[in-house]
Design brief:
Layout lengths: L20 E3 L10 E8 L2 E9 L5 E8 L5 H18 L4 H8 L8 E5 L2 E4 L2 H13 L11 E3 L1
Antiparallel strand pairs: 1-7, 2-3, 3-4, 5-6
Helix pairs in contact: 2-3
Length: 149
């Protein structure tokens, strides 16, 4: 099969005037406070851990599902990584909750939390929990460092 030259294709790189302002990632301190919350959704138990910046705002989340190694556990880990990176890059908890609240997939159903009696999924439960406890918080200016892309 003959080789096809792709030298005429150029990556779509923005020039100086097209660059966008993006929020630089704000890593958490090596030693930090956290909240760990035990939950159950549709009979599946787990633990939600929320790592906090020094000002008390969430900077990362982890979900530990009782069925380690399952597809559900892997999907929860992937969700947590994406969610954590998003808030470390400036997405507010309120904005994140809007995007994840109401997602429906298994497991869903009754929960162990009287304040959140039902959830459409574990992701929905986490979004509702974060909204209840942190939805009113806006990130402090310490987290709003901008840089050019």
């Amino acid at each position: 099969m003959p080789r096809v030259s792709r030298s005429h294709l150029k990556p779509n790189m923005p020039n100086e005037s097209q660059s966008k302002m993006i929020v630089a990632r704000q890593s958490l301190p090596d030693t930090r406070n956290s909240i760990t919350h035990k939950f159950s959704v549709g009979g599946h138990e787990g633990y939600l851990t929320i790592g906090l910046y020094q000002d008390g705002t969430p900077g990362e989340i982890f979900i530990k599902i009782s069925k380690e190694g399952s597809a559900l556990s892997g999907m929860c880990q992937a969700f947590c990584r994406a969610f954590s990176l998003a808030i470390q890059h400036g997405l507010t908890i309120k904005e994140a909750v809007i995007r994840f609240k109401g997602m429906r997939f298994e497991p869903h159903g009754y929960t162990s939390n009287k304040d959140i009696p039902e959830a459409d999924s574990i992701v929905d439960y986490v979004a509702k929990y974060l909204e209840m406890h942190f939805g009113h918080i806006q990130k402090s200016s310490d987290h709003d460092t901008l840089r050019r892309a």
